[in-house]
Automatic annotation (TrEMBL):
HAMAP family according to UniProt: P5C_reductase
Record-given protein name: Pyrroline-5-carboxylate reductase
Role: Catalyzes the reduction of 1-pyrroline-5-carboxylate (PCA) to L-proline.
PROSITE patterns cross-referenced by the UniProt entry: P5CR
Main location: cytoplasm
Keyword terms of this UniProt record: Amino-acid biosynthesis, Cytoplasm, NADP, Oxidoreductase, Proline biosynthesis
Signal sequence range: none
Gene, per the UniProt record: proC
GO molecular function, one term: pyrroline-5-carboxylate reductase activity
Gene3D superfamilies reported in the protein's UniProt record: NAD(P)-binding Rossmann-like Domain, ProC C-terminal domain-like
Similarity annotation: Belongs to the pyrroline-5-carboxylate reductase family.
Cell location: Cytoplasm
Catalytic activity entry: L-proline + NADP(+) = (S)-1-pyrroline-5-carboxylate + NADPH + 2 H(+); L-proline + NAD(+) = (S)-1-pyrroline-5-carboxylate + NADH + 2 H(+)
Superkingdom field: Bacteria
Amino acid sequence: MKTELSLALIGGGNMANALASGLIGRRCAAGNVHVIDPGEAVRARWDALGTTTAAAPDARLAECRVWFFAVKPQVMAEVVRQCRPWLRPDTLIISIAAGIPGEALARWLGADGQPYARIVRCMPNTPALIACGMTGMAALSGVDASDRALAEELLRAVGEVIWVDDDAAIDAVTAVSGSGPAYVFLFLEALIAAGIEQGLTPEQSRQLALGTFHGATQLAALSPDSPAVLRDRVTSKGGTTAAALAVFQDRGLPDIMREAVDAAARRAGALAREFSA
Ligand SMILES: NC(=O)C1=CN([C@@H]2O[C@H](COP(=O)(O)OP(=O)(O)OC[C@H]3O[C@@H](n4cnc5c(N)ncnc54)[C@H](O)[C@@H]3O)[C@@H](O)[C@H]2O)C=CC1
Ligand SMILES: O=C(O)[C@@H]1CCC=N1
């Protein structure tokens, strides 16, 4: 077990917790993880895991090879600047903040007009909590092959990873897979409620809806056929599925999805304008 890696988690909330659950004991010893978070209750949880903690950036950051920024976009600029005094030439920066461009991070961490480009921007999602995450990643120019491999290995500890060519594409990743679990949960809620209206008990409807999502997504992942072909195979001519799909089409489900994903991507752009000046 390679546990010598030293990692700083800057922001110790939901997503940091998900990442740590995949890494501590496997890739990092708890004692090599340093968590910065002003929340006293948050720090107490990390202390119980055996990490070190601090309420604000401190000198231990200089000993950490990887800094993982997991604070809200609204506070990123200030937090990154507070951490900067402990930056070393080989520090690998990984940021998961929605909407904050790598270029802004590079500027905030730079010195003498020189941006710091050893930065990987990535967008995981909450199923990372059960090691079923989906992460999109983009590397800035200062990231060499070994840093890239390290960043990928860290995010792989909580699920699957894809690389996108440039930082701007992370906004699209955010709109599809970062926010995506919420779309799936909304769909599930609606399907469960509809099943109850049809006379099923809440538990029956929940089991049927969850089992269907699980089975259908597994089939789509494992089958060589496209989701459209698989959908067609469920849909008997003049049958029940056709009746339901006609309602989805009439109500414009594909348009609703396009507009929703576009709204998320545009919000990512707006966050960048608001919080990365
Ligand atoms: N929740 C999600 O589904 C996803 C969130 N993200 C991104 O991850 C980031 C964190 O989100 P969550 O973990 O959901 O939020 P969270 O609210 O659970 O965690 C944020 C943590 O940052 C701490 N914090 C606040 N000010 C701080 C400061 N000055 N220094 C250090 N820590 C500070 C808070 O006490 C909190 O524990 C956000 O930028 C979000 O855009 C990315 C992918 C998915
Ligand atoms: O809603 C948000 O802004 C964050 C980013 C992706 C998921 N949650």
